[in-house]
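Progress against Task 2.4 (sequence-to-structure conversion) is shown through the following example record, which the project officer requested during the mid-term review.
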Amino acid sequence: METSVEQRRECRTDLSWPVSVWVPGANRFFNGRSANISKVGVFITVPMTTPIRRGSVVELNFPRMDALAAQKGQFARIKKGRVVRVDREGTLQDAVIGLGIAFE
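Structure tokens generated for the chain above:
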């Protein structure tokens, strides 16, 4: 049995929100959903067909609601991050993979 050690530096907040992930190697976006987020990273799910691996650098686009977009002047919050975890446990059941992404 393998024991994993918690490596998070910040508290995470549960947040289910749509997110688009730009994967440079595929030269396209993949639509997913966040599960939780902190100041330093996020855990998201994306389709199992997303060609991603640990260490990949991605761009995350979090869409804003119209009212916030009007106030901030943009329709998405864009963050760059590095994939630090790829979780394939939900692949067969839900056709998704989980990604732990550390913001850069």
